[in-house]
Amino acid sequence: MSGYVNLVEIGWFLFIGLLFMGLNLFLMSRQLLRTRYGMLSILGASVWPALMIVLSVQGGSVLGGLTERALTLESTLAWSVVVATTLMVCIPGITLIRRMIQLARS
């Protein structure tokens, strides 16, 4: 990108997010935390690093990289940041919604 992507920051954000997600999964497996609250906490633990990863792209034009028609390093990095953050938020979010629907039906 025209600026730079700080890989150390992204690594720390991923580590912190994974640490809290793992802690929540451990607490849910030991039945020390109810599933709906654990999934809500996992969603929160994935949203914060996802937003921080987007904000750690310094000096880059993410929107400009998304709208480029040519395959450049800037467009590849922009799309990878967007896809990674989307997956980090959507997977726990969809799992939480499915779990809440299952609980409502039973």
How is this structure best summarized?
The protein is mainly alpha-helical. It is built from four helices and two strands, in the order βααβαα. The chain crosses the membrane at residues 6-27, 39-57, 77-97.
Written account of the structure:
This protein is mainly alpha-helical and 106 residues long. The chain has one domain. 78% of the residues lie in helices and 4% in strands. The chain contains four helices and two strands. The chain has a two-stranded antiparallel sheet. The radius of gyration is 17 Å and the shape is elongated. 20% of the residues are buried. The mean pLDDT is 78.
Structural key phrases:
mainly alpha; single chain; 106 residues; 4 helices; two-stranded antiparallel ribbon
Strand percent estimate: under 5%
Major sheet description:
2 strands, antiparallel
Query: Helix share of residues?
Result: over 70%
- Shape category: elongated
The tally of helices reads 4
Topology, pairings included?
Blueprint: E1 4-5, H1 7-29, H2 35-55, E2 57-58, H3 62-67, H4 73-105
Antiparallel strand pairs: 1-2
Helix pairs in contact: 1-2, 2-4
